[in-house]
């Protein structure tokens, strides 16, 4: 579970065009140089190996769609430092453009590696937040960045479905949910609410096999 310990998690607040938002932030150091990490997060052939297959007009102002149903617009692209996209799910999401945004920021570290910051901002009215807290999106991003780490280390394509149902994947998700609970507490969450959110997130990502 070195990957979980390597990442720093923060829950905060921000804004998107639809209004005030809560944010989940992941910060992670990679030994690979910035150009290598930028290519991994923007090159469709490499993106599919750690996240999901992507299609669409992959230029600023263009629209993209991931194989899992996530879709949106490329809002900002400044190679090799910043990529911002709207992040929506399902056809009904088009009625509320900008309710969720993901931004990836890259910067060079003194050792020649890369500091990655991923910020996912979603409107406070998102019905999943009161139930799941920051783990609603945070656990999914922990799983995704695990795939990115394996790709940068020269690993094979990550089969997310296979991994998430394996004993290793279930334990990873369980510990990720707990880690996001700690970030929620650090942000001022009420202990009882945080405990309930961690339990709900764990049940979602680690359902009873029976």
TrEMBL record:
<feature type="domain" description="Activator of Hsp90 ATPase homologue 1/2-like C-terminal">
    <location>
        <begin position="32"/>
        <end position="126"/>
    </location>
</feature>
<dbReference type="InterPro" id="IPR013538">
    <property type="entry name" value="ASHA1/2-like_C"/>
</dbReference>
<dbReference type="InterPro" id="IPR023393">
    <property type="entry name" value="START-like_dom_sf"/>
</dbReference>
<dbReference type="Pfam" id="PF08327">
    <property type="entry name" value="AHSA1"/>
</dbReference>
<protein>
    <recommendedName>
        <fullName>Activator of Hsp90 ATPase homologue 1/2-like C-terminal domain-containing protein</fullName>
    </recommendedName>
</protein>
<comment type="similarity">
    <text>Belongs to the AHA1 family.</text>
</comment>
């Amino acid at each position: 579970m070195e990957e979980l310990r390597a990442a720093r998690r923060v829950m905060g607040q921000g804004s998107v065009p639809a209004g005030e938002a809560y944010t989940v932030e992941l910060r992670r150091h990679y030994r690979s140089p910035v150009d290598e990490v930028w290519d991994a997060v923007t090159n469709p052939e490499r993106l599919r190996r750690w996240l999901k297959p992507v299609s669409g007009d992959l230029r600023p102002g263009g629209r993209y769609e991931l194989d899992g149903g996530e879709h949106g617009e490329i809002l900002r692209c400044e190679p090799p430092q910043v990529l911002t996209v709207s992040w929506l799910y399902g056809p009904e999401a088009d009625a509320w453009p900008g309710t969720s945004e993901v931004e990836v920021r890259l910067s060079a570290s003194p050792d020649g590696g890369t500091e990655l910051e991923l910020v996912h901002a979603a409107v406070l009215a998102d019905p999943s937040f009161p139930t799941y807290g920051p783990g609603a999106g945070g656990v999914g991003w922990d799983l995704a960045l695990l795939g990115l780490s394996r790709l940068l280390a020269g690993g094979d394509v990550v089969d997310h479905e296979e991994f998430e149902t394996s004993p290793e994947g279930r334990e990873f998700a369980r510990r990720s949910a707990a880690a996001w609970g700690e970030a929620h507490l650090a942000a001022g969450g009420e202990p009882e609410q945080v405990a309930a959110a961690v339990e709900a997130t764990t049940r979602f990502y680690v359902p009873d096999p029976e």
